[in-house]
Design brief:
180 residues, mainly alpha, 8 helices
């Protein structure tokens, strides 16, 4: 009996929610394949990050530019095979690769939010993608700082009043109760 295999995307589409983004939805940004050697990955990621720094600064995304510069500072000293050998053998290049990839991912997030329409976010995303196969901690990713400011009640689905969060202007409400 022949059985057809249905992908998760097709199942989601069959449910009628084709416009919703899920973890099964293909990403719209397609980066070139990652370099096959660590040295190539470092050099290409550095070039892409340097290009993105200028674009981010032109669009006023200073936070993204600052993070990208910090990423380049971690791996920018590797220029060729000799410096790669020196830094690989005598320093903690693996940690520098991780820190650079982490900073590039965060810079890409910042560029996407601060410099909408700029190519800086795409360059930084692809630069981070180049370093990912050589990162000793590839499953650690930066989180947007705005997530930490969300009230816990919004995350749990509780009504705001049950969680002790008052809605409205507290000072005017307090004055009304004092006058009564």
């Amino acid at each position: 009996v022949a059985r057809s295999v249905v992908s998760p995307c097709e199942v989601w589409t069959m449910r009628g929610a084709s416009s919703a983004w899920t973890s099964f939805t293909p990403y719209s940004l397609e980066c070139p394949p990652a370099p096959t050697y660590e040295l190539q990955a470092i050099v290409k990621a550095t070039q892409k990050a340097n290009d993105a720094i200028g674009l981010a600064q032109d669009m006023g995304a200073e936070k993204a530019a600052r993070l990208a510069k910090r990423a380049v500072d971690h791996i920018g000293q590797v220029k060729g095979w000799f410096t790669y050998y020196v830094y690989r053998v005598y320093t903690d290049l693996q940690d520098d690769i991780h820190q650079a990839r982490f900073d590039m991912e965060q810079a890409a997030q910042s560029a996407y939010s601060e410099a909408t329409g700029s190519e800086a976010g795409n360059l930084l995303s692809c630069a981070a993608d180049d370093l990912l196969p050589y990162d000793p901690l590839p499953n650690i990713h930066p989180m947007d700082h705005r997530l930490s400011s969300i009230p816990l009640a919004l995350c749990t689905g509780l009504p705001l009043e049950d969680a002790g969060i008052q809605i409205g202007n507290n000072s005017s409400d307090a004055r009304k109760h004092e006058d009564a």
